């Protein structure tokens, strides 16, 4: 499921994102007894909770209203609709990401910390991965997160044209790894079948359905023979982590190291020139 941001009214969305305009307060007769008022922030917070707990498919104005003890219609005075709400949610959660990293001279350590923080962020809010990057929200917190990465890359001293592409490379890598980990968590829960059982049940049948597997896929078979996949060691407290999640996290660690090695090589090449 891919969701495109910016599907609502452009002016209302941008003014709400940047808080350049405060929505008018609703005019209604208050119910008997004390009742907390609504606000854009309260609605966004409730919507994030719905998406975190039940996924993007469960998000609706009605579901958010029910969480707040209100009707869906009560929300429209503050937020024009679900499309604008999604923009606000997406931007709001990005406020969780750190914007400063210590060690001005150590770009590699800073980018490593950034990557781990970004992975953890996406796993707290996996629905964020369903919001397409083709059309960004253009909100203040999204920009702050992007600015943080750019400032960290500036420590490398590489030229702006290359840094622009590195921003995209690192961002796509992080989202891809986070998506795999999130799906690994989801697979066992939704199918009721542990990762190990799923893999063993199917891989064991390859010898029957494709006895010439090694001849048909020589590169893959040689790699498997030379380095049989083993579950990544579970950290203390992570013994119950699904096998695929541990594998995805190991891929994240190794892949990040290779990317940072590539940046280091680019720095040396630039220095030689």
CATH level-1 class of the largest domain: Mainly Alpha
Would you give the CATH topology of the largest domain?
Tetracycline Repressor, domain 2
Residue share in β-strands: under 5%
Number of helices: 12
Gross morphology is flat
Helix content: 55-70%
Structural class: mainly alpha
For the record, give the distance between the C-alpha atoms at the N and C termini, rounded to a whole number.
46 Å
How many discrete structural domains? Answer: 2
According to DSSP, the number of beta strands is 0
| Uncertain segments | 25-34
Identify the CATH architecture of the largest domain.
Orthogonal Bundle
Structure description:
It is a single chain. The protein is mostly helical and 273 residues long. It has 2 domains: 10-94, Arc Repressor Mutant, subunit A (Orthogonal Bundle); 98-272, Tetracycline Repressor, domain 2 (Orthogonal Bundle), CATH 1.10.357.10. Helix content is 60%, strand content 0%. It has helices at residues 10-17, 40-54, 61-68, 82-93, 107-124, 140-154, 160-191, 195-203, 206-209, 213-216, 218-226, 243-272. It is flat and about 65 Å long. The model is unreliable at 25-34 (pLDDT under 50).
């Amino acid at each position: 499921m891919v969701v495109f941001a910016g599907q609502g009214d452009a002016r209302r969305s941008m003014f709400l994102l940047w808080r350049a305009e405060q929505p008018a307060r609703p005019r209604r007769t208050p119910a008997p007894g004390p009742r907390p008022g609504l606000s854009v922030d309260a609605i966004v917070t409730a919507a994030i909770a719905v998406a975190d707990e039940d996924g993007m498919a469960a998000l609706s104005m009605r579901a958010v209203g029910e969480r707040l003890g209100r009707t869906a219609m009560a929300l429209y005075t503050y937020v024009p609709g679900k499309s604008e709400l999604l923009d606000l949610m997406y931007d709001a959660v990005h406020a969780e990401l750190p914007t400063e990293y210590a060690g001005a001279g150590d770009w590699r350590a800073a980018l490593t910390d950034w990557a781990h923080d970004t992975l953890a962020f996406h796993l707290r809010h996996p629905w964020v991965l369903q919001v397409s990057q083709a059309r960004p929200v253009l909100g203040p917190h999204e920009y702050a997160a992007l600015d943080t990465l750019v400032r960290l890359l500036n420590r490398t001293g590489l030229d702006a044209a290359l840094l622009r592409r590195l921003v995209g490379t690192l961002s796509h890598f992080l989202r891809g790894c986070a998506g795999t980990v999130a799906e690994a968590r989801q697979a066992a829960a939704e199918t009721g079948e542990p990762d190990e059982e799923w893999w063993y049940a199917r891989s064991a049948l390859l010898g029957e359905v494709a006895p010439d597997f090694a001849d048909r896929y020589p590169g893959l078979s040689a790699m498997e023979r030379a380095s049989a996949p083993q579950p990544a060691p579970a950290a203390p407290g992570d013994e119950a982590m699904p096998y695929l999640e541990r594998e995805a996290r190991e891929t994240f660690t190794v892949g990040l190291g290779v990317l940072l090695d590539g940046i280091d090589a680019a720095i040396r090449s630039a220095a030689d020139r």
